[in-house]
Amino acid sequence: MSTAERYADLPLDEGRRAIVELAANLADERLAPRAAEIDREARNPHENYTDLRDSGIHVMCVPTRFGGPGHDYATYMMVSAELGRGCGATALSFNMHASTTLWIGDMLDALELSDAQREELETLRALHYANIVNDGALYAQTFSEGNMAASGKAPFGTSARKVEGGWLLNGRKIFASLSGAATHYGILATEEGVAPSRENTLYIAVPDGTEGFAVVGDWDPLGMRGTVSRTLLLKDVFVPDEAQLMPRGTYHLAARHVPHMFMTLSATYMGVAQGAYDFTVAYLRGEVPGTRPSRMHPVKQQSVAQMALQLEQMRALWLRAIGEFGPDPSLAARQRAYAAQYTVMEGVVDICRLAIRTCGGRSMLKSLPLERMYRDARCGSLMFPWSAEICLERLGREALYRPGESDD
Is residue 188 within 8 Å of 254, Cβ to Cβ? Predict the structure, then answer.
């Protein structure tokens, strides 16, 4: 199925359709041919980031008034899925940058901010978007600390202490994608000197090379090896006030009122699932170099049918969920987001498993992409802040409890 066919029934205007097609072409012509080497060497895909800069995808979600094309959330999700079809690690790591441009964008305008916060936000946006548009800056996002903070159940252990002219950051972040490639690292930290709570979360960008900031440790994981998600150490790292990505006190508002902001990782895995299916069809048709058609076997036809059914079910739920992005979604829309995230993260594993089983023993070889796709797929359900377990927990709890209800 071509990219045009996958999105043919969606009301996309010419600009949105064009950038999705652009991402699909990049995935086929640039990302996919490099994916095996990047995975083998567990290195940052710098050449892919360069292609994303040169193509304009790097700035796609920057609002027009700040020099970007101003593409929306749903369009980005489709673009990200196409990139993931070619190289999951590139799509997943680049998502940290693209999500940053979305998080500080127009979605904040619907929140209840004071006039002072809105004025400060516009100033911060102008600075960070200028870094991206004019200098090609690449922004990382860092949640994980090895505790419950990333899932929203506890304050972040990394601290930010207010000092004259800025902030002093201290802490440690793990699984920090884009390590060694990012020009700026978005750090989620808890403000010192006030009651430790999620409401006191700060979101601050630390430029690479800042004194006291270090990227440490090895990176040799099961899958998503090209994300290079090493550990960040911060020891009395000073950043000026304008390094904030959001005004103090606003991050928790975004997290509370715009939950779909945490769903962006699912796009990569939607793409990996599509890529595994596409390869299986090509393999059985004899279109992969060195293969002959094996599509005549009924067992293989049935397996492809199972893959197609699951893929269509995943995509239908996912497309509906990403189309409901916005502030304060209804209970039904919020639950669809959890359900879509869970369905994609678990479904991609099923599809990759079926793909290997259907194509046969040769597909386990590293000379073919299915082995890599399967390893990448296994990582999806672990991804914070919406891991598979967290999605299930929230689906069940929000079905049974209304806001403010408890058993006390």
Answer: no
Residues 346, 386 contacting (CB under 8 angstroms): no
Residue with tokens 């895909």: 45
What is the reported pTM?
0.95
CB neighbours of 400 closer than 8 A, spacing ≥ 6? Answer: none
- CATH 2.40.110.10, the chain: domain bounds: 139-248
For residue 234, the cross-strand partners are: 171, 213
* Pairwise CA distance, residues 321 & 318, whole Å: 5
The predicted pLDDT at position 152 comes to 66
**Residue keyed to tokens 């066919």:** 5
Low-confidence spans in the chain with pLDDT less than 70: 1, 4, 148-153
- Whether 243 and 204 have beta carbons less than 8 Å apart is answered as yes
What token pair was written down for 82? 């196409």
Closest CA to 127 of 257, 241, 296: 241
Please choose, from the candidates 328, 326, 322, 325, the residue with its C-alpha nearest in 3D space to the C-alpha of residue 343.
322
Q: Which fold has domain 258-400?
A: Butyryl-CoA Dehydrogenase, subunit A; domain 3 (1.20.140)
Closest CA to 389 of 397, 401, 381: 381
* Rounded-to-integer distance, Cα 226 and Cα 155, Å: 29
Of 355, 348, 99, give the one whose Cα is nearest residue 224: 348
User: Residues spanned by CATH 1.10.540.10 within the chain?
Assistant: 3-135
- With beta carbons less than 8 A apart as the criterion, state whether 112 and 61 touch: no
pLDDT for residue 3: 74
Topology of domain 3-135, per CATH?
Butyryl-Coa Dehydrogenase, subunit A; domain 1 (1.10.540)
Which one-letter DSSP state was computed for residue 157? Answer: S
* Strand stretches in 41-91, DSSP E: none
Find out if CATH 2.40.110.10 is the number for domain 139-248.
yes
Task: Give alpha helix (H) positions in 285-330.
Answer: 298-322
